[in-house]
Amino acid sequence: MGSYLSGDTSADQGGEDVQGDSLELWAFYLPQTAVGALVLMFYFGLPVLRRRRERGAPKWRDNPLLIGLTVALLASATTTAFIVSVVPVAVIVGLVSLVLVARLGYRNIPANRVGVVRRRYGSTHPEFRNVTPYKTRGVQARILLPGRSEWLFPALNEVRFAPRTYVAQDKIGLVTAKEGRNRPATRSLGRSVECDNFQDAQAFLLDGGEQGKQVDILPPGHWYYINPELFKVEAVPRVYVPPGTIGLVDAKAGMFRPPDRAFGPHVECGDFQEGSRFLAGGGQQGRQMAILQGGAYYNINPALFDVTTVETLRSKGRGELTLPHLEEISIPVGYTGVVITLDGAAPESPDQLGPRVPGHQGFRLPWVFLRNGGQRGVQEETLGEGTVSALNPYFVRVVLIPTRLLVLEWNDKSPAESRNYDAQLGKIAVTVQGHRLFVDMSQTLQIPPESAPRLVSKNGGSETSGLGGLDRDPLPVQRFVERVLGAIVVSYFNEIAAAATVKEFLEAYAETRTDLASQVRTALLAWGVEARNTTLGEFRAEDPSLNEALKRPAHEQMRGELLAAELANVEREDAIDAVRVRAESRRMSMELRTRIEVLGLNNVVVLEMLKETSKAPVPQFIGGGDLSAYLETQPVSRLKELLGRMRELHEESAVEGASPPSLPPDPREAFGNERP
């Protein structure tokens, strides 16, 4: 029994030794085998994984096969260590396994990148099959941001890097959602969802974000962390309206506009940059009353609004719309702008002027004009000279009316003068006693700004259909001039010509001019227009002979005036000569008195006689032997006259001690009768 027992005991000991040896062998070779397998896997597998990564394949730690093999080896090593009761080895291997798994789970996203996470295993959400806001199978809506470390279970989650989204300064981001709720057929754009500019994809999906193009956009000049698996971002140019022009807006989405309305209701939406406010406020499709001011950029969603600018009009065209329609309306100096509204309440009569409406800021706010009861048609309120306004050409037309002085002429016009305000005023022709007479006429007038609307209302240019904008057509003023001035002048001349002869007609020229000016002034005053000056030219006959007959009285009158002028000149010359004679006589008298006082009267007489005698002609031959023939040649009458003047002078001067000279009765006595 004892031996049996001892034999059995030895046998048991032998079996335990064999079993211990086997466990020792497992404990020795299995860790070495695991370590060798890991070394071989890293040595041969890493280059392959690196090449796959360069081709865009997932990282090796995202490969479930490699991760599973690694975990299996570590698990077997740990189990073996516990079997052979090598506790320290098991603890070390377990810790290494945990550290390796923890290290493989941490993800660091590089700068300028986002991490897109795809969950490999698990159930699929019935509503979100591709991109999900929950931790279900598929692409996760939440992305990994750069600069942050996050732990994801290895092999269960795959992380792919994608670049950030940048919208340039001159563009906006048009967003299209690849996942979300189905959009109603009545809407062409996905509704607005508060999701931090599409950077919070979970909020977008959980709060009812819809598939397709979005009403919200990405503003320019920013970087965005957007999940590219959920959103597609397209960069489109911003809307630019050049200075001095306007932009017209048509809505592509919104409520349907009633057919009897020209515009949709105005909705405050930040110059159409807040599309969600436009739709939420009841914005309607079609033309909008508000316009875009020039000289600015606008962040407008092109999927919601179609904006017409001068650039788009040049490239695409827009029916009857032209480039001048998109220019700001500028009223030149010397003009006033008569406003014709193309929308509003119907007036009581076609010729009624629209009353003034407060608050519309010179027709810049059409919705205020309509809300306050503005009427369609010509308005009492005008745009003054120098005004520059950005107005919607679908809402107003502005007709330019001159307020400066106008000189209108009745004469022959050339084709180049067809746009003149007096283009319809031809030369005035009057028939008097069968003779056709012509006359030129001019009239100066001025149209006050307050009278311009009535002039337009009565003479055309007040149509409320079609396009508006600035209207430079002179037709309203031309019609006014023709219908009022032209008719009055023609009627007046025909009336006086029927009751007068040619002579009476021509002789009443001054009266005709005055009477005509009075009638013109009265007619213009009825329109509120001021008449300044009326000028009537010379009448000319169609018959040349009558023109010559008409010229004769004028020629005779001119000749009489010339003769009268000549007679007046002769009389003036005679008066001048008389004055000169009197002056010369006074001078000679003074000189003679002086000589008499100095020399004496008799001596002066003798000297003067000798002087006069010396001037007498001396004959070359004298017949006879006495002096009678010689004396006959001397100017005795001249000597007598000279002595007479001397006597008068002596009596006037009353010289003391002097006696008047005496002249012998016969001139021969002064020289004797003897012959030489």
Automatic annotation (TrEMBL):
Residue ranges of every copy of the Band domain listed in the record: 368-571
Keywords carried by this UniProt record: Membrane, Transmembrane, Transmembrane helix
Superkingdom of this protein's organism: Bacteria
Region described as Disordered: spans on this chain: 451-470, 649-676
Biased composition (Basic and acidic residues): 666-676
Pfam families: Band_7
Keyword Signal assigned: no
TM region(s), chain numbering: 26-44, 89-106
InterPro entries: Band_7
Protein name: SPFH domain-containing protein
Lineage: Bacteria, Bacillati, Actinomycetota, Actinomycetes, Kitasatosporales
